[in-house]
Amino acid sequence: MNHIDNGRSAEIGSASIARLFSEFLGLSDCFKRITFSHEPNCDVQHYVDYFGVPVDFNASEISLILKPEKLDEPIKQANVELFNYVQTHLSGVKKQIEAAKEPKELKALRNAAAENARAGLFSAVSVAAAANMSVRTAQRIAAENGTTVQGLIDKIREHSAMELLRDNRNDIGSIAFLLGYSDERAFRRAFQRWTGQTPSDFRKQLNKAIE
After folding, report:
1. Which of 1-10, 17-26, 103-112, 133-142 has the lowest mean pLDDT?
2. Distance from first CA to last CA of the chain, Å, rounded?
3. pTM of whole model > 0.85?
4. pLDDT tens column, 65-109
5. Does residue 191 contact residue 198 with C-beta atoms inside 8 Å?
6. What is the rounded average pLDDT for all residues in the chain?
7. Of 74, 80, 130, 176, which has the maximum CB count within 10 A?
8. Are 190 and 201 in contact (CB under 8 A)?
9. Does pLDDT of 30 surpass 80?
């Protein structure tokens, strides 16, 4: 992806992994060093401040180097049930897309968005790359069908969020993280834009309907 976005996808992916370790898995201070194979997109000190470890650029590979002593630490917030639930649901979303009647190129973009969601990737650049298209081509195809690449991504997020909220064991913070949001507030804003309700209100309404 570096030749397309100058390493921005690699940076976002590495930031997500770092957050996964610290916030979602409860494993902090895990990394010894981080390397990227591209030029920095801003002052290197900003990367150091974010990751809290030395960050090298123009390296031979992209790597997040773990501290050896951290490998034996147990995951404090492991939630196998939630992981399996998400994987099963997103597989179902992909099957629904494959069965839908729509132009081949648009279906390829939807499939790419669904497949990327399983890996925690929610950017237009990553969807276009997964569909073997340039971002410009992907945006053109989406526009010809009355939507945008980000709109396709958000539709999968919306559907997934509604399904995940049906299970009260899935806390809203975890759902926000799994759907690629930087924090719970960003997820709440997006969900309210889609449905006119907050995630909490949507869940309360579901629970009342069940009662």
Report:
1. 17-26
2. 49
3. no
4. 999 888 887 766 555 565 655 555 555 555 555 545 678 889 899
5. yes
6. 83
7. 176
8. no
9. yes
Cβ-based burial of 100 (10 A; exposed 0-12, middle 13-18, buried ≥19): exposed
- Rg of the Cα atoms in the chain: 19
Cβ atoms of 165 and 187 closer than 8 Å: no
Q: Which pairs from 185-188 meet CB under 8 Å and 24+ separation?
A: 187/161
Output the six-digit token pair for 118: 């399983």
Asked if residues 7 and 61 have their Cβ atoms less than 8 Å apart, the reply is no
**Res 119 pLDDT > 90:** no
Q: What is the rounded CA–CA span in Å between residue 143 and residue 58?
A: 36
Extract the tokens encoding 208: 């009342």
Length of the chain: 211
147-168 per-position pLDDT tens digit = 999 999 999 899 888 888 888 8
Alpha-carbon torsion 65, 116, 194, 143, what sign? Answer: positive
* Token digits of residue 64: 């997040």
Q: What is the C-alpha to C-alpha distance for residues 42 and 31, in angstroms, rounded to an integer?
A: 21
Beta strands in 43-144 (DSSP E): 55-56, 63-66
Please enumerate in sequence order all residues whose Cβ is within 8 A of that of 101, keeping only pairs 6 or more positions apart, or say none. none
Residue with tokens 């773990």: 66
DSSP H or E segment with residue 192:
helix 184-195
